[in-house]
């Protein structure tokens, strides 16, 4: 049988020797097609557009092809007037390009008024500016982290082509039950950049691969990577007398489809495909080791800033569509960074949906944490929506059907939605109230016991209709103090950020244990260590999903800086020497995480019912105080204990031991009565933060029998966890 190839893979016209034809409008971006590349870009308000093609890293383009103009017909001498546009999408296919040595951009023109210095404008079209594709799958220009840019180049952030031919072998997203996760928030560069890491290529995706054994030994089964979408580390304009300040954290996205080139060993090769493959290799290796990968995504704003910021992509492509503007054309700023994406405009909404679908499908990402997610629920005028279409679509999207979705349920515009974030049966939240309550309880504030009981049980006051897994519990995260600094400083110390200590949160609910910062006082140091262990123990016995911050397992400090976003230095780098220096703290956290994994009663998908629904004689959870069965709920109480009935296990499905947790945040020790167990069961000590290592925590199965089964002396400001079996 004779087969003929379809006619639509052939060019129809030429332009200055380049073969072209009308392209396909979907998908947006640059797509490799038989014989060529299909380019497609949306702009509702542009009147003219040109495709600009560069050889890799060249300052000047080798061809500029208009989307509207006179094009020569193939095999004829006459010309056609073509408009390579379908609706509001400029699209063409260009044939016989060298994909591996290609960078591309666009020029656009459109209606005025054009922006003049200090004069806001709705549109910011500039036909002299080369614009980056909003759908670029790879972005060059910042290929090597920290390499000084050449600002004389006219096209700084350069779109590239990516081959989607990675061999995933049998890999797929792990789909671990969310209630079983222990999340580890990590900065890609900071995890291995310190000289002590011993990594072959420190600060890269590849280097994390070398440290997978550390993650496995700690016991985490999900890493949440701080932003890895392409950003410009040179964006920061503040100065410090001691070091160059940078956009180190990366919460300032330039492109929502491209991994950060400077995080790859292959970034210097200026090969977008190799950067993608290096990240995919890391994800595949993490999956092989039972560790999910979650991305911290920043969809609330971009790195183009306000009226004073650069025109890189979205501003020049269609400013009025991509950003929320006020009646004078100024940028609404609910992100605190100069602009706010117009997330619920249908085109922008589709962009963000296309992005997470792409990462889920092409990178096998297991879940997403959405930075300042409350912005995603605002309309085009900034008002909160009762039924935000973007959040609803993300929750019900078929491609994202197995992905975890986690919201930072607040924004910089004053919208705080912890417990009220539109969930659609899917969304979990960073539980900021859990963080604040645990911190205040740890420092012995009054009026905390009642609220602590709620936070320990996955905040049913906030998530009664959503279940325990809606609560992502944390005591520390990248924002704010590290765990060591939480117990070492009363106040922030951000002078090194170049903003006269004005930046960063003022309400940290921290306590320095008697001395601000470094000290040689052994009693203070001992108390600080106990307080850190108290926080770790409480986090791991709480219902909900725990998250820990990179470095807290070794007592990392930032010297009181609670907003270290701008420091590419030892202030932020994981110091691997501390594994030896702080080995007892690492060991303690490791055993606490192992304890959580060993006991399904701690990992309920649904809220505890405070009743006996299996006929064990005990409710699934009961509250206690210094006297068994008699909790002290008074405002001055600093003690609280609870028992989980092992026969209820995980919602009555998986049987477990009995667990008894005693928290004494009083400055005096107390003798706590213990419930007497039936069936010949006895209490064993798993955790006692008052004790020195190795008696502060034991491996599951190696707990020590309590000598006096009727009572247990709990030291001042300490936590005890007992197992009844």
TrEMBL record:
One of its GO terms (biological process) is glycogen catabolic process. Keywords: Glycosidase, Hydrolase, Transit peptide. SUPFAM superfamilies: (Trans)glycosidases, E set domains, Glycosyl hydrolase domain. Transmembrane segments: none annotated. Residues 185-596 form the Glycosyl hydrolase family 13 catalytic domain. One of its GO terms (molecular function) is amylo-alpha-1,6-glucosidase activity. InterPro entries: GH, GH13_cat_dom, Glyco_hydro_13_N, Glyco_hydro_b, Glycogen_debranch_GlgX, Ig-like_fold, Ig_E-set, ISOA1-3-like_C. PANTHER family: GLYCOGEN DEBRANCHING ENZYME. Belongs to the glycosyl hydrolase 13 family. This is Glycogen debranching enzyme. It comes from Candidatus Moduliflexus flocculans.
